[in-house]
Amino acid sequence: MLLSRLTEILGGTLQGQDREITGASTLEEASATDISFLANPRYRDKAMATGAGAIIVQELLPRDIPQIRADNPYLWFARALALLYPDKPVQQGVSSMACVHPEARVHESACIHPHVYVGKGACVSEGCIVHPGCFIGDGASVGDHTVMHPNVVVYDGCMVGSHCILHAGVVIGSDGFGFAWDGKRHVKVPQKGIVIIGDHVEIGANCTIDRAALTSTRIGSGVKMDNLVQIGHNVVVGDHTILVAQTGISGSAHIGAGVVLAGQCGVAGHITIGDRVTAAARTGIATDVPAGKVIAGFPSMDHGHWLRVQAVYKTLPELLKRVRELERKVKDLATD
Amino acid sequence: MLLSRLTEILGGTLQGQDREITGASTLEEASATDISFLANPRYRDKAMATGAGAIIVQELLPRDIPQIRADNPYLWFARALALLYPDKPVQQGVSSMACVHPEARVHESACIHPHVYVGKGACVSEGCIVHPGCFIGDGASVGDHTVMHPNVVVYDGCMVGSHCILHAGVVIGSDGFGFAWDGKRHVKVPQKGIVIIGDHVEIGANCTIDRAALTSTRIGSGVKMDNLVQIGHNVVVGDHTILVAQTGISGSAHIGAGVVLAGQCGVAGHITIGDRVTAAARTGIATDVPAGKVIAGFPSMDHGHWLRVQAVYKTLPELLKRVRELERKVKDLATD
Amino acid sequence: MLLSRLTEILGGTLQGQDREITGASTLEEASATDISFLANPRYRDKAMATGAGAIIVQELLPRDIPQIRADNPYLWFARALALLYPDKPVQQGVSSMACVHPEARVHESACIHPHVYVGKGACVSEGCIVHPGCFIGDGASVGDHTVMHPNVVVYDGCMVGSHCILHAGVVIGSDGFGFAWDGKRHVKVPQKGIVIIGDHVEIGANCTIDRAALTSTRIGSGVKMDNLVQIGHNVVVGDHTILVAQTGISGSAHIGAGVVLAGQCGVAGHITIGDRVTAAARTGIATDVPAGKVIAGFPSMDHGHWLRVQAVYKTLPELLKRVRELERKVKDLATD
């Protein structure tokens, strides 16, 4: 694809000679037919040395190679990638090695691979790709152009939106964790709710999202979840929120929109996290958090305060020594 | 179902007019044909305002709607749910799209869905439901009325009890993590034991339970595990213990009966946790814990003490300032 | 198998009478036809009391049973286990209930079980065992004698080495977690790289390894991963490194060779961990770590220092009391 054609589609301005580009790579590994990008000024030296055939930048570099100026080079690069590496063409239709209930509705443009199970009354919409080993339970639905990678499980009655990507091993709609003690044993509280997932949601491999006890566990549109994330029953996650790998959200927590929880965070049950909250990796959130806060630590606190706490924490043995020294001196002073 | 019929079956006393109930819901969402419950006094206002057709309470509310008095409203509600929403009728028999070894024994009342594999000498008992994509290895056994949700894997020789619920993606009997270093590389220690799971055990989605090296990893009866829990080889978990999501138990640890480990806890190998121990979320347990203790923190300590430690921890920068101030004053006093 | 035959194959010296051994077990559970071992001096009493028919030791015990002296009894035991419990014979060939693309190459000695999917251009080498429910994507490859337990997913184009063991539910090659914000929503950065896994790698149940954005996520030879480990995109893991359960490695981190990260560790993105680093359980590593260091804590620090920090941390309430007492005394001194 010509650089000029890329800028025609994606915007930005081309500086230098037009050129055919066939791929994309990192600054270190790009060859003369690849395009690359500079988003983080930290990598400027690499950009100055790159063998790439063209480079996307915010500010022009003093180099004699084709450069594309764009406000957000990383975003531009993301879009260029989608153009340079189009998805495989989809084979439409239902495999003879799949098992689709006669009362399921599968759109003729959908692709149902072998070893897939689609239950009674389930609905698979236009352009969906359902990879081998997936399970779509009775009455469940999957919106148009959603991709289910292999071995994804959507329990009965759960609803997945349009243009979603569910990675391998994702489980949607397993029973919430609810028991009542009868004095001798834990009695299961039947989990009769569902899971509702919005549009343009991506869910990482082996994530688990429990169905609500009575109503619905809801994942907003544009939410992006990394691998091995756990969502308890009745949880609500707002639009465009990001949940990084191995984070866990306990039951009935409400997470706002535009929130970012970095890796291995934990959220207690029944609490509310406001919109646009950002939590550093491993934050343990046990109480409500107002909108817009940046937090860290366990129990969670303001991020800046946490940094100061950690600075002292690391020197605790020295602090103890200073207190001991003070005690000695004060004793001396008192006996003087 | 009539309220009077529910109290006839489940006990409790009906106050107010009898009424037909068709469903159950939360206090906020219940309609006139739903029953709801008040277990936590915190939600009394919601109970006073609910549109439910009936409400289960411990103490009667000053409202003119049918109320059912029960000692444990939540337990009563759990049982009512099971009556109001009976399980789907089971299709008995083996799907023609399943693969069952001729030397496997599958009870005629069991349901083997498509894409299931049952190995040589495996045994699937009365009333079991084995959903699509499950694997039951050679010589493995599954007790009566156990439900295996889609894509559950039970390795060769492992034994699952009766009335268990295994959620999607659960892995039982993967090799324990054991290696011996030969000076150049890690040599695998073959894992020749099994996993034995008791009755009435529920295991959450994508949990992993390793087989023992030589003997058996044992999960007691009535144990309830949330999603993404990890159990190492040779571990023993006592009856009715609760393991909340993303908790990990290292190899050869012994967990007592009636224990509760909240979310994201970690337990070191070869240690013993006594009966009825409760650990707060994210507790890291590295040493033996006597029966009945309530613990928190990492390394774990008495829960009350941990709260006091955390209170000081959060003010460490201020504590440092106070020490500095003391040092200044003591220096002044010394030079006076 | 005769003890003399075992020493002939594995080395070591047999002390006492030769004997037929049919199995292996722990010191407590071994019977007269079992062999057992003493590796940790802590268990010497158990070895003195064991009912085993023979015991592997480093130093002879004052007992009148056959003993095998070996430099590394645990390693010797591991190798004996492999001899005493040979693997099941493999059924070669492709199941008629599997789906193998006509343009896939499957070696005639490989075993493809039912409900397996092998994509276009994929390659399954000599002696591989692919259990039910596995998915091998278009152009993916699996080296000789690799075992894929049930429901393992290898996405398109990813490469798994020889003699690997992939436990049930492992996902290799899911999309890395990369998005660019366009002011309104997260735009997916297409993940066009692959995963390359070396030889003799073992990966625990339900682990997830993301494909690189542009190049490759690389797992070195001899790496051993426990269950539920998460590897982000572009990560490099050096040879013979051990990653214990529930550990997570963020994108673009470089982990050296011979590293050990104990359970529930976390590694931040774009950092480098040197060769032979050992991290205690739950270490949170946010900055580069030089080769050979032993670390712990969050943020990570030298292990010995962390122990001293923790010792003070646990006594913070008392430290606060001492500071208060000093303040009182200093005030008294000042007003004297």
Can you characterise this structure?
The structure is a homotrimer of 336-residue chains. The first copy, chain A, is flat and about 95 Å long. The model of chain A has no long low-confidence stretch (mean pLDDT 96). The first copy, chain A, is α/β, with parallel strands linked by helices and 336 residues long. Chain A folds into three domains: 3-84, Udp-n-acetylmuramoylalanyl-d-glutamate--2,6- Diaminopimelate Ligase, Chain: A, domain 1; 93-305, UDP N-Acetylglucosamine Acyltransferase, domain 1 (3 Solenoid); 311-335. The first copy, chain A, has five helices and 38 strands. Chains in contact: A-B, A-C, B-C. Chains A and B meet through strand 20, strand 21, helix 4 and helix 5 of A and helix 3 and helix 5 of B.
CATH architecture of the largest domain in chain A: 3 Solenoid
Provide a count of the helices of chain A: 5
Assign the CATH class of the largest domain in chain A. Mainly Beta
Average residue pLDDT of chain A: 96
Domain unit count of chain A? 3
What is the number of strand segments of chain A? Answer: 38
Roughly how many Å apart are the termini of chain A? 87 Å
Shape of chain A: flat
Helicity of chain A, as a percent range: 10-25%
How are strands sequenced across the largest beta sheet of chain A?
A: 6-9-12-15-18-23-26-29-32-35-37-38
Multimeric status of the protein: homotrimer
What is the CA-based Rg of chain A, rounded?
26 Å
Largest interface by residue count?
A-B, 58 and 61 residues
Biggest pleated-sheet summary of chain A: 12 strands, mixed
- Considering the protein shown, what is the CATH homologous superfamily of the largest domain in chain A? Hexapeptide repeat proteins
CATH topology of the largest domain in chain A: UDP N-Acetylglucosamine Acyltransferase, domain 1
Q: Structural class given helices, strands, pairing of chain A?
A: alpha/beta
Low-confidence stretches of chain A: none
